[in-house]
């Protein structure tokens, strides 16, 4: 199921407008809607255990920087080879993360440039034409995600 940026934002806002209350069950937490919510919203609520709620919050906080991408970066370029082993993690990164990044940042140009025999690189263009690049050869998919997060932080520092 595809969740567009507006629906995703609504889900996040609704998620944080809920309040948690301890339940009598074994260390579980009941999530209740605040006063004034419609019955339609209440139907979608369910009981979450504390570890589930903590897990969802941890994932949200860990990935919150993805929504800041278009605020801090003007263009994102990924250079990679279609067939070489050194670009395999970059290809996996694109396959697994492109849809999420683009749905959270629909106006951000994310350019994927394939060239035979090129070393994989990730380039970010900021305001005033400033560019920063990172070589991706030898990095895993998680390390590439961390490198992108670092590029977003650089963009935030350049704006300040």
From TrEMBL:
<dbReference type="InterPro" id="IPR016464">
    <property type="entry name" value="NADH_Ub_cplx-1_asu_su-2"/>
</dbReference>
<keyword id="KW-0999">Mitochondrion inner membrane</keyword>
<dbReference type="GO" id="GO:0005743">
    <property type="term" value="C:mitochondrial inner membrane"/>
</dbReference>
<feature type="domain" description="Ribosomal protein/NADH dehydrogenase">
    <location>
        <begin position="82"/>
        <end position="155"/>
    </location>
</feature>
<comment type="function">
    <text>Accessory subunit of the mitochondrial membrane respiratory chain NADH dehydrogenase (Complex I), that is believed not to be involved in catalysis. Complex I functions in the transfer of electrons from NADH to the respiratory chain. The immediate electron acceptor for the enzyme is believed to be ubiquinone.</text>
</comment>
<comment type="similarity">
    <text>Belongs to the complex I NDUFA2 subunit family.</text>
</comment>
<keyword id="KW-0249">Electron transport</keyword>
<dbReference type="InterPro" id="IPR036249">
    <property type="entry name" value="Thioredoxin-like_sf"/>
</dbReference>
<dbReference type="Pfam" id="PF05047">
    <property type="entry name" value="L51_S25_CI-B8"/>
</dbReference>
<keyword id="KW-0496">Mitochondrion</keyword>
<protein>
    <recommendedName>
        <fullName>Ribosomal protein/NADH dehydrogenase domain-containing protein</fullName>
    </recommendedName>
</protein>
<keyword id="KW-0472">Membrane</keyword>
<dbReference type="InterPro" id="IPR007741">
    <property type="entry name" value="Ribosomal_mL43/mS25/NADH_DH"/>
</dbReference>
<keyword id="KW-0813">Transport</keyword>
<keyword id="KW-0679">Respiratory chain</keyword>
């Amino acid at each position: 199921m595809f969740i567009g940026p507006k629906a995703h934002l609504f889900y996040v806002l609704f998620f944080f407008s809920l309040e948690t209350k301890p339940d009598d069950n074994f260390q579980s937490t009941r999530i209740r809607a605040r006063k004034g919510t419609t019955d339609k919203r209440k139907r979608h609520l369910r009981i979450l255990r504390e570890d589930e709620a903590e897990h969802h919050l941890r994932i949200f906080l860990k990935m919150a920087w993805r929504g800041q991408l278009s605020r801090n970066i003007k263009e994102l370029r990924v250079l990679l080879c279609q067939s070489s082993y050194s670009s395999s993690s970059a290809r996996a990164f694109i396959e697994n993360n492109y849809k999420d990044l683009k749905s959270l940042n629909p106006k951000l140009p994310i350019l994927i440039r394939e060239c035979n025999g090129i070393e994989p690189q990730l380039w970010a263009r900021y305001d005033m034409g400033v560019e920063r690049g990172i070589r991706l050869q030898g990095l895993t998919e998680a390390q590439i995600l961390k490198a992108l997060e670092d590029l977003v932080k650089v963009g935030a520092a350049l704006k300040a």
